[in-house]
Amino acid sequence: MIELVGCGTPDAGSPGEPLCLAGQTGQVDQASQVAVSVPGAAHTQKLREYFVFRPGAFDQAVNDIKSSIMDPEADGNLQSAWLLAEVDHWNNEKERLVLVTEHSLLVCKYDFLTLRCSYARRVPFIGIDTISTGEFTFPPKSLLKRAGLGVRIEWDNNRELPFTARWNPWSSQLPFVTFTAHPLANADPSMVNLCKLESFRDELISGVKATQRDSPSAGILVLEKPLPIDAYVGLVAAINNQGRLGYAMARGPVGF
């Protein structure tokens, strides 16, 4: 059993289970993917609507996560930090800061208003068994579509999922996490390298292989194949993605 860390003390749990942070539980939020092509000052203003693109915001968030979430024994040293979008099993997008450490993957939601990590999920490298890269696919009769490339990290592949977990949009029991590029990945030259999905995947694969090298029972498959999302209508996801609700950004006089 892999130990997870939250609320300052280690707790036992399953790999990839959300961590308990200051009495909060992980909240599902939704987002959208929006292309930005406005020039000059308007472009800069559009960027700064996303809190993470404001000067120093990303570095501060990473430092806060290092001090409040990272555990020297469970994680080791930080190797790299990335700005990506998570795509859940109901096709909802959520902005995520993703940290690759020596021994684990940390998937974090950072609250740029309260300056704290409000959600974190630790995936120990020793339990990861598959990393797949490909385009997203949906059931034949699904009304949903999603363009672009994704990377899916899976663990506990032999564990049978309960029906309620697969069809619960807020479930945290699914043994995988899927990422795609942040919608503004190429909009800010200073942030481009932090948003490269393929570079993130390559570093993750290297880290997992290094951790599993001395474990005869562990092993990782690296695949290129379509990434299925078993969602059909997804009305809530469509509304929330269109409204960019999974991204920390200014919304009129308020921001969240």
Describe the protein in words.
The radius of gyration is 18 Å and the shape is globular. The protein is α+β, with helices and mostly antiparallel strands and 256 residues long. The protein has 6 helices and 14 strands. Helix content is 21%, strand content 31%. The model is unreliable at 1-13 and 20-39 (pLDDT under 50). The strands form 3 sheets. Strands 3, 4, 5, 6, 7, 8, 9, 10, 11 and 12 form a 10-stranded mixed sheet that branches. It has a single domain, classed as PH-domain like (Roll), CATH 2.30.29.30.
Query: Strand fraction band?
Result: 25-35%
At CATH level 3, the topology is PH-domain like
The DSSP helix count reads 6
Shape: globular
SS-based structural class? Answer: alpha+beta
CATH architecture: Roll
Instruction: Please estimate the helix content.
Output: 10-25%
Largest sheet: 10 strands, mixed
Give the end-to-end Cα distance, rounded to a whole number of Å: 36 Å
* Total domain modules: 1
User: Nearest-angstrom radius of gyration?
Assistant: 18 Å
Q: Low-confidence segments, ≥5 residues, pLDDT <50?
A: 1-13, 20-39
Tell me the total number of β-strands: 14
Oligomer: single chain
Family: Belongs to the TPRG1 family.
Protein name: HSac2 domain-containing protein
InterPro entries: hSac2 (IPR034753), Inositol_phosphatase (IPR022158), TPRG1-like (IPR040242)
